[in-house]
Structures are given as C-alpha cells and as structure tokens.
C-alpha cells in the first residue's frame, strides 16, 4: 500500500540523479572518512567530478556505541570560495528521501551558499545506500494499487488492512534488527557524528519538510552544537499522527482551492466536481492506454496531489483533470507514477518504504478502524476531496506494525541553542504554515526565529522570492539573524 500523502521530499516530482561511493580515495577528514569519486548506479549516472562520496560507520544501536555498526552513504562538494564557514548539511525530507541522490540536483538552487560552505548530504539509516529498506517487490507494489484505500464494504476494509499487514511483514523480513533503529532520534545522533567527522565545531544545517523535524530533534538533543540552522517547509512538532493527517487535509485542500480560484472556478463547486469524479472512478476505474493498468481512485487522488506541490504544475493538473472527465486516465496515472517513483519499465523507488519504517517507529499512535470511522466526518469537512483518504490512512499506515512507536509528538525544545531560522509558506500544501509558527514557539524564546513567505507550493527557499532567498543567504553566509516575524510577500 502506498501512502496517499505524508510529508514529502521538496522535489517529489523530480527525476533525481543517483550516486554511490566508488573505490579510490582523496583526502580524509578528522574522523577518517575516505572520500572518492561517486559511481554510476542502476538509477542513473554519477554526478560530476565536483562531487565526492564516502561511507561512515555508525552504531546500529546508539545505546551500544561499541556494538554492531551500519554504513551511512555521504556526498559532498567542497566550497568554492576562500572564506569557508564549514559544512552545510542538507536533509530533503520524506522521511525516506535520498540526500546522496538529491544533493547534486539541488546544488544549483543553493549555488551562492557553496561559496562559503561544503555542500553535504547523506542517506539516513534505512534509506537508499544506507542500509535501505525494501518491503515488497515491483510486481507486488503494482498489484497493491488495486487495493481500495477508502473502503466502502467489509470486504474492501478486510483487503485494506490485510495489505497493510502484509507490507509490515515485508518490512520486518527485509530490515531485520534495523527496523527498531531507524527513528528520527537515531538519525539526529548520526548527524552529530557526521558533524564530528567533518571537523565542524557547530552543526550548520538546512532541513526541508521532514528534515525540519529532524533538525528540531537535533537541536533538542544537542542544543550547544547548533550553528546556523534553517528549517523550511516545516512539519508541525505539536501534531500527533491524526493531527498530521488533519493538517495535510487542510493544507492540500487549501492549495486545491488556490488552484481552482486561479482557473476562475468557485473552490466549493470545483471541489465537489473533483470529489464526484473520484467517486465515479472508485466505482469504475478509467482506462489509461497502458496494458494491465487502470486509473483507480487512489491513483487518481495521488495524481491530483502531485501538481499541488508547485504552482508551476497547475496547468498540468488542468489537463489531467480534463482528460479524466473525458474518460482518459492516462495523464493522472502519469502524475501518480511520478509521485510513486515508478519508471517506464515498471520499477518503483523505495522512498515510501523507508518513510513508513521510520515514521511508524517514531509514531506511538495506532488509530483503529473504529476510531477512523468516527473521525471521517471531521476529515471530510476539512477536505471534501482528500479528507476520506487521509482519514483512512491514519488507521492503515502502521496497522499491525511489528515494533512499537516511540512518542506521540517529537520533542524539539532547545534552550540555550543559537537562533534557528524557521521559514513558513502560507500556501504550503504538505506542511501547512501553522506548523512553522508552532516549531518556532517550541524551539523556545530566543531560539526560533520566524520568517513568513506569502506564496504557494511546498517550501519557500528557491521558489521565486528574492526576499526569502536573500534573508536565508544573509543568515547562513554572514550570521545575520532577521527580526522574528519578518514577512516576505
């Protein structure tokens, strides 16, 4: 079962580069890392010679620092300028996004930062080249696309929860002992080891989407090690699993309303039209022109979600919806495949596998089917288009999970930490703006510094606002902390 929507990587629709660590080495860091040329993988070509890769060994279980180890894949490009601040570590979200794959493609967006920083990222534990988890094969993933994630009958409900249980078993079989050691807190401790081996006294960090929760967790665990930290597209640290689902229903509906208004439609009427389309597809999936594949209700909703991440993609959504109204599901299917990392040969990426393994270890809350049924009217009121999907998702996502969750909400208070720049976008669909304000407040007085952008899309930096970009650059490059509450229009 593919999750309908959670926090996603910043460039969820991008065709990402892929990189690994090759043989050979260059200079070593204080921690003994052996950096070498990145190599070609099955997913794509190696990045240019500007980039170096390495593997860092860290404890499987941080409570046993001298015990069994796992390898973390790292990538970096050295600073171009002479007045180097240090390393700037990036996490692009998910959870489950590969930093090794994404860092080279994101580098042009942060080219100015490279004047004074080494750009560094990594695959967190359980992700990609860092002991990545794969819970089922490609054929099983495609077969699961026919499972109805908004069950209307006892038979559909039974199939929905059986698929969730089967996915959990597959994760357990593949991950083994690692499954209990991929939490956000584990990765925050990995981050501090990365800082140490890179030779940085302080952690300079840029976290996006889920990467903001990871950054907040790091700040809580290591407040005195926080350097210049920016959190963009912020996950609400005060929301539990159900709260996050409500936030996303609210955020995606808000983005859909903005899209509908941009096309001259009344948001309420436009939403009813789309909801009616999804109900018809639930009863009769649409042909797509691809043998053996039809557009199911879940795939259709996923296809609608993807273009809402960026205002530039709204015309694509118009075309896909028009085609679906004519009985052609091919365009929405292509969009859903982009979200689900399915390529033209039928191979799927594993971001959602890692996402589920990490988030279900983090989240203690396990809503039941009965709880979900009671919540559905509230979800549907929040979003007539996405509410039912996100409501049922709360019960199915961690159903029958073999390891217990660790907390209801993450702890991000960081008394004594240096100022952390928290960037919120009022039109963010995946991580609604309210979460940024909550993060700034929970980091603590004098720590969380709020910057608001009145824009659209997932994330603010690099999205077209000179005000946002120059404020973030001044903070990261020169240590210039803006006034708390600054607004960029």
From TrEMBL:
At the top level, the lineage of the source is: Bacteria
Does the record's keyword annotation contain Nucleus? no
Please give the PROSITE patterns that the UniProt record associates with this protein: PROKAR_LIPOPROTEIN
Q: Which residues form the Peptidase S33 tripeptidyl aminopeptidase-like C-terminal domain?
A: 383-488
MF terms (GO), sorted A to Z: hydrolase activity
Look up keyword DNA damage and say if it applies. no
- Signal peptide, first to last residue: 1-18
Please name the SUPFAM superfamilies in this protein's record.
alpha/beta-Hydrolases
The record's listing under Pfam families reads: Abhydrolase_4
Sorted alphabetically, the keyword list is:
Hydrolase, Signal
Please give the family membership noted in the entry. Belongs to the peptidase S33 family.
Give the protein's recorded name: Pimeloyl-ACP methyl ester carboxylesterase
Q: Name the species this protein comes from.
A: Streptomyces caelestis
């Amino acid at each position: 079962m593919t999750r309908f929507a959670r926090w996603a990587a910043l460039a969820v629709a991008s065709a990402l580069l892929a990189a690994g660590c090759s043989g050979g080495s260059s200079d070593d860091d204080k921690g003994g890392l052996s950096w070498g040329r990145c190599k070609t993988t099955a997913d794509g070509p190696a990045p240019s010679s500007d980039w170096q890769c390495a593997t860092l060994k860290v404890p499987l279980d941080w409570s046993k620092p001298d015990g069994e180890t796992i390898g973390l894949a790292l990538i970096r490009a050295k600073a171009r300028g002479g007045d180097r601040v240090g390393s700037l570590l990036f996490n692009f979200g998910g959870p489950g996004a590969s930093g090794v794959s994404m860092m080279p493609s994101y580098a042009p967006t942060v080219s100015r930062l490279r004047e004074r920083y080494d750009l560094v990222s990594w695959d967190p534990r359980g992700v990609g080249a860092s002991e990545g988890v794969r819970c089922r094969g490609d054929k099983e993933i495609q077969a699961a696309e026919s499972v109805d994630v908004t069950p209307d009958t006892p038979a559909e409900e039974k199939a929905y929860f059986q698929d969730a249980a089967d996915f959990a078993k597959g994760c357990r079989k593949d991950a083994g002992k690692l499954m209990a050691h991929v939490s956000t807190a584990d990765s925050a401790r990995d981050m501090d080891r990365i800082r140490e081996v890179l030779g940085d006294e302080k952690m300079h960090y840029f976290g996006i989407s889920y990467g903001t929760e990871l950054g907040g967790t790091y700040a809580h665990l290591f407040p005195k090690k926080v350097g210049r930290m920016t959190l963009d597209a912020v996950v609400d640290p005060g929301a539990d699993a159900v709260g996050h689902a409500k936030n996303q229903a609210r955020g995606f509906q808000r983005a859909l309303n903005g899209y509908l208004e941009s096309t001259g439609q009344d948001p309420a009427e436009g939403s009813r039209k789309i909801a009616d389309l999804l109900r018809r597809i639930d009863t009769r999936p649409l042909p797509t022109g691809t043998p053996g594949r039809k557009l199911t209700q879940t795939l259709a909703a996923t296809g609608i979600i993807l273009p809402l991440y960026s205002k530039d993609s709204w015309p694509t959504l118009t075309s896909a919806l028009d085609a679906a109204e004519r009985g052609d599901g091919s365009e929405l299917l292509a969009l859903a495949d982009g979200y689900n990392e399915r390529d033209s040969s039928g191979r799927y990426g594993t971001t959602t596998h890692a996402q589920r393994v990490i988030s279900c270890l983090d989240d203690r809350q396990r809503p039941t089917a009965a709880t979900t049924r009671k919540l559905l009217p509230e979800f549907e009121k929040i979003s007539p288009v996405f509410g039912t999907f996100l409501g049922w998702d709360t019960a199915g996502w961690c159903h029958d999970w073999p390891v217990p969750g660790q907390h209801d909400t993450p702890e991000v208070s960081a008394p004594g930490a240096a100022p952390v720049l928290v960037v919120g976008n009022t039109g963010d669909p995946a991580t609604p703006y309210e979460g940024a304000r909550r993060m700034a407040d929970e980091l603590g007085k004098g720590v969380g510094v709020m910057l608001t952008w009145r824009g659209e899309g997932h994330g603010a930096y690099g999205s077209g606002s000179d005000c946002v970009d120059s404020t973030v650059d001044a903070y990261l490059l020169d240590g210039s902390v803006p006034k708390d509450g600054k607004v960029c229009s």
